[in-house]
Amino acid sequence: MSRLLIFGLGYTATRIANAMRERGWQVDATGSAGNLDFADSDTITAALASASHVLSSVPPADESDPVLDRYGTVLDGKWLGYLSSTGVYGDALGAWVDESAPTGGGRRSARTTCDSRWLEAGARVFRLPGIYGPGRSAFERVAQGKAHRIDLPGQVFSRVHVDDIVSGVLAAMAGDAPAGAYNLADDLPSSQNSVIEETCRLLEQEPPPLVTLDDANLSPMARGFYAENRKVANGKARRLLGWEPRYPTYREGLAAIRARA
Known about the structure:
The protein has 10 helices and 12 strands. By secondary structure, the protein is of the alpha/beta class. Helix content is about 35%, strand content about 15%. It has one domain (about 80-260): NAD(P)-binding Rossmann-like Domain (Rossmann fold, 3-Layer(aba) Sandwich), CATH 3.40.50.720. The strands form 4 sheets. The chain has a 6-stranded parallel beta sheet with strand order 2-1-3-4-6-10, sandwiched between helices.
């Protein structure tokens, strides 16, 4: 039986784990919902010895990577995957970026460092934009009164439905894709305003008023997202992984979430 070890069983990685189990894989994982304790070196090392594939979704900590720092020396010979961020590209002034674009010029300096280290280790690094899906979408923000429409003409974001991340990672594993970076993003970078407006249309309610960035009263983290403007291209994943997003735009993704509600 093929065996996968996942470091960090969060929102996305949990869905990857479930999909692999459905395919008959043994899946071990760290995290609050996992069966392994990250700090238990003996148990983790034993699990790694029998795992053919390793996937990490653990974010940076103190400008470093916890998984590589602690277990990097026992990862040789494994298929390696890492869930990274398109934030490594920084601000592109609204232009398109692909995997050949420079990294390290944005606010995600720690993520860029970890991204580079996993590439050096021979991993398939999946660079992800804004992730949404059931229980984590604009529907929740609208329901909680936290949705905003901000008056920033030309500001766009890329995003990806969580199910499309799962299919991209599975495609890379099944096809033994070459090591390197892969952008998993949908086909339609767009403003956050458009997403909120479509969400409200599906809910049959009026969208929130248009406000300035200052009047939106965003948290520093949320405001930071508006400091960068880029469109993320997904052509490499399509070519090398044979990946096709099931939800090519936010419209299909939101409609599917609404249909499940």
